[in-house]
Amino acid sequence: MPFKAGLELTELQNMTVPEDDNISNDSNDFTEVENGQINSKFISDRESRRSLTNSHLEKKKCDEYIPGTTSLGMSVFNLSNAIMGSGILGLAFALANTGILLFLLLLVSVTLLSIYSIYLLLVCSKETGCMVYEKLGEQVFGTPGKMIVFGSTSLQNVGAMLSYLFIVKNELPSAIKFLMGEEETFSAWYVDGRILVVIVTFGIILPLCLLKNLGYLGYTSGFSLSCMVFFLIVVIYKKFQIPCYELELNATSSMLSNSSAHEHMCKPKYVIFNSKTVYALPTIAFAFVCHPSVLPIYSELKDRSQKKMQLVSNISFFAMFVMYFMTAIFGYLTFYDNVQSDLLHKYQSKDDILILTVRLAVIVAVILTVPVLFFTVRSSLFELARKTKFDLCRHVVVTFVLLVIINLLVIFIPTMKDIFGVVGVTSANMLIFILPSSLYLKITHQDGAKLTQRIWASLFLALGIMFSLVSIPLVIYDWVQSGGSAEGH
């Protein structure tokens, strides 16, 4: 049956093979015919080439290569600013409920795990060519992946906005009282934190959020980071300014009048377990989440490569580790067991210009940062709904409704530790542990050469799942026990 074999061969030769720069057509593959059957080597090679070509085309379709222009140093600054946030205010509270040694162990662990998760994310980006987290999720897991990434990043950004507005709710009344020359005990409707946060939201934040483009507000990120560095300097300075006995006198407890109680209260503890210890890990995780910003920063890096971006990540996380630990340790050694989930609120601004300056700087910084986060959430929402074309009516309605919901949450959530707890065990866990490892395992599931890396990624995924299974019930249990309103210990 030579005619049939020859016909099949002619048909195959006339087939159009997808063009690819990296694929060459070897004419020998078209001539291997035995007993009227096409050689299996030809078929398998051809299929593998087709698969490779399709994969290459999909990668091109995900994101077109655009050269970056941002230097390594500026990229470190941008990523450090993305990591830094309101989480720094809750770390002293976390340390007070874990002890110095346990807190240091948790902080080192989360730092290293976060760096590893960035590594997995960069590998996934390199394999798929995607520079946007939502696109990466859609490329690997389809629409469900896109939805999960959108939900996690949006919840993280909403949590950050809530914590920022919580700072306004806590700190603005004290600043206004100081400027008015009133005592901390002074009460009036215009120094009520709940009313003030609504006024600030709809008087300042809403007009900024209604703008079509908030690009210029990106410059406030430098101011925000500077405020946090200033805050750290003041925390260190105040440690040597506030004697421990003053804290005890303010405790208004007669049992603290004896010297043994004084010594116990002013003695640092190294390992602690109590009902609030459960908030330590979620708070630390919340403080280190920057994953939604990693790929945009990577895409803008000049002469970008995975190795270069990993260096940016390592430097940024090390810098934030030092800053976080110093803030937590000096805040704790200032107030010991009296520290609160909002460290800044613990400092009294009465007759203290330095503390007032820090308060005002942080308040202004967070007010200007909220619209940037809000713009990201709203844009993702429109992208998900495929309503990317600007519509003024929809723009205004969605902005107003989202801000109303966020304000209601700020008013009725009792403490910042609840924000750190919920966001830490949900979106922070997804963004640090579960999503990067899941994406990596899916992308490399047929790559036998990466068996060892896949084992590590699987263990990383298991750690994230275990973290959720343990932390979520404990946070809920603490709410039930304390009614969600206990601030102290």
Keyphrases for this structure?
489 residues; 18 helices; disordered C terminus; two-stranded antiparallel ribbon; mainly alpha; 71% helix; Sodium/glucose cotransporter
Can you walk me through this structure?
With 489 residues, this protein is mainly α. The protein has a single domain, classed as Sodium/glucose cotransporter, CATH 1.20.1730.10. Helix content is 71%, strand content 1%. It has 18 helices and 2 strands. It has a two-stranded antiparallel sheet with strand order 1-2. A hairpin with a 2-residue loop joins strand 1 and strand 2. Helix 3 (72-83) crosses helix 8 (220-239). Residues 1-60, 252-257 and 484-489 have low confidence and may be disordered.
Topology:
Elements (H helix, E strand, L loop, with lengths): L1 H13 L18 E2 L2 E2 L1 H23 L9 H12 L7 H6 L3 H29 L4 H48 L12 H17 L10 H20 L4 H6 L9 H7 L14 H9 L2 H10 L5 H30 L7 H4 L6 H32 L7 H21 L3 H28 L7 H32 L7
Antiparallel strand pairs: 1-2
Helix pairs in contact: 3-8, 3-12, 3-13, 5-11, 5-13, 5-17, 6-7, 6-15, 6-16, 6-17, 7-15, 7-16, 8-13, 8-15, 11-17, 17-18
**CATH H level: which superfamily?**
Sodium/glucose cotransporter
Look at the structure and give the CATH class: Mainly Alpha
Number of domains: 1
Total helical segments: 18
Return the structural class: mainly alpha
Assign a percent range to the helix content: over 70%
Number of strands: 2
Which stretches are low in confidence, meaning pLDDT under 50 for 5 or more residues running?
A: 1-60, 252-257, 484-489
Terminal CA distance: 89 Å
Please provide the ordered H/E string of secondary-structure elements.
Answer: HEEHHHHHHHHHHHHHHHHH
